[in-house]
Amino acid sequence: MTPQPGSAGDVLTLISAGSATTRSDLARLTGLARSTISQRVDALIERGLVEETESGESTGGRPPRQLRLHTEDHAFAGVDLGATHCRVALMDISGDVLAECEDSLLIGEGPDTVLAHVDQRLDQLLGEAGRPRSALRAMGIGVPGPVEFATGRPNNPPIMPGWNDYPVPEFFEGVSVLVDNDVNVMALGEHRNAFAGTSHLLFVKVGTGIGCGIVAEGKLHRGAQGSAGDIGHIRVSGHEDAGCRCGNSACLEAVAGGAAIARRLTELGLPAESGGDVVALVQAGNTQALRLVREAGRLIGEVLASLVNFFNPEVIVVGGALSRVHEHLLAGIRETVYRRSLPLATHHLSITPSRTGINAAALGAGILAIEHYLSPDNINRIVNA
Amino acid sequence: MTPQPGSAGDVLTLISAGSATTRSDLARLTGLARSTISQRVDALIERGLVEETESGESTGGRPPRQLRLHTEDHAFAGVDLGATHCRVALMDISGDVLAECEDSLLIGEGPDTVLAHVDQRLDQLLGEAGRPRSALRAMGIGVPGPVEFATGRPNNPPIMPGWNDYPVPEFFEGVSVLVDNDVNVMALGEHRNAFAGTSHLLFVKVGTGIGCGIVAEGKLHRGAQGSAGDIGHIRVSGHEDAGCRCGNSACLEAVAGGAAIARRLTELGLPAESGGDVVALVQAGNTQALRLVREAGRLIGEVLASLVNFFNPEVIVVGGALSRVHEHLLAGIRETVYRRSLPLATHHLSITPSRTGINAAALGAGILAIEHYLSPDNINRIVNA
DNA sequence: TGAACTTCCGCCGAAGGTCGAACAAAGCCG
DNA sequence: CGGCTTTGTTCGACCTTCGGCGGAAGTTCA
User: Fold this and answer.
1) Min Cα–Cα distance to chain B from A212, Å
2) Are A224 and B342 inside 8 Å of each other by CB?
């Protein structure tokens, strides 16, 4: 039995996380002998997973050879499917984007049409990046509805007609496919990209609807049925008259979602159809719209105040279409959360707008794929094969 | 860093979890050779961690020698400190209770007095069980307030005067001491004792106050500041007049806690001081009390409905003093949760009374200690020493 | 009852992995 | 230019693990 763990997968994890860039670092961190580390690194280099760069800076002796992930030869894809759009990002193994694209695409056209479109875009992006199809190792897909993560099958999604129980991964041959809810992958993208130092994060997406992705101990929390984070249908007080498409009334989404704000603006004589119209009105300085957005922030804050007490996150990130006017939204959210949550939970809590922006979902989906590929178990399997 | 699979610690984990009771089981589960397993088991036996029992049942050949945790020579303690009571359970390494006791004890007397009392009870219980003090390997303590788990220091607990930032573990020499919130240890006790098959569990304690312990992926979720699960101060709609000791109004605890129900009964001319009095009235068949308890269940259910959407647990366990009249409390909770939560989240959700009862906290605290001691890292350290 | 069969467990030589010492490489410093 | 420091590789010693073999301990069946 080895006194310390340190399989090839562990070594690669340290390299990919940036914890170690030289063989000496690895020896120090793992406690293994330098010769053993060299052997591991050699195996990783031989498999094309790691490469050496030019020598680094000397600290008084022979300069170490820097190690990093070998970014050629592999590719990963992150796919963000929304109700009306499709974004695909091709990434290398370090998470850098090689190429990306965006189209209008109705998810309601069904899985065969949509996935064929994705497949075509993948070929195009691979071409742009100059990599063969065989380089594609894994892909992640975020979809606007609940998914049984283990099988990659949508689970009674309300706005994805034709997708229920469709085995998405089987559509793509020879590549691992991970399918998850769009808000989950956005949370993952935001966490890995801008908040990697935190352990407990909530990502709140405020668009047409309202959803939440949960990062606990650095990992996505999906819950028992994969429906965790569905905060759009939490009840808010004082709006019993607002009916929701789910059949209940006073749902958060029915009073504070982009669609709800647009409807109320229309009632006030300001024609608005979607969250985008609301954003446009706010940016044009319309005070009615501004007031409604801020009020929506307060309502969202009321729900988040409960969740802060319950979950005790370090940071809440607000994204989605309406976060383009985040100053007003966040003002309402902060006001309510800091008033209604317990001091111990809010003392070190920060509530910030998304730093990753429109690409959070595609990036997060890609990261899901990369982390799956780089998991120690999978790497050990590859190296020992 | 992933631990090396098949270490002595992993072998012991399989034995303690009941996943393997023979050397053959271990070889099958770990994939290691039978001879290697024998060597591991020998080391564990030599260290007094595992013992062989008489042969088990034959499956057609030589019957295997059964293995189990060696329950002599070690002892673990679980301590449940409440506002006005102290329970101590002495357990062997398999989690069976060897001896236990209960006293009235005011936590407000301060850490020196209370912990000295605990220390004395420990000696007494060790005497009853016929084990020397040196057999005590670790202890867990549940306290009625927030704790910084890593250091074992209470963190501004409202009902524990004199305990703020007190380094509890240092009071006990030569033994590992883990300190956690009482609701957390109750959740752990309930999960390990009665719901070990589930991954995501919420334990709701309804007593004088209201709290919640969270089990996610089989582990306690404590949050960023260790204050997760503090649902007593979540706002419920329609009770703006109810002031709470936290300074806000309409807190769940202020309208549905045992103290709140007692106060309202008193207003109705039925003198009641505590949750215990409320239970007595309900058990005596008082319809006013029954109605209030059921209404409290509805209010708790309103909050839980939100948390079910957010967290998506498999099971909600209701415990605490008021759960002695759980049929009425649960009726209100179930009614609201199943009406207000999303079908996907409630479809496989069960809401049940505590199966572990009054001892959940002390048991959970002991289990916290045992699992700490049995963690693969700790066992490998012991075996390789 | 006894022989054949099955399963369990310890022993031992072979194979393979890890370690640390020794050595070579590469840059810094006086 | 020769010592000093740090890095990386080579190699034999050592240790662990593996798997076959044989003995142990029951079951099944004639």
Assistant:
1) 8
2) no
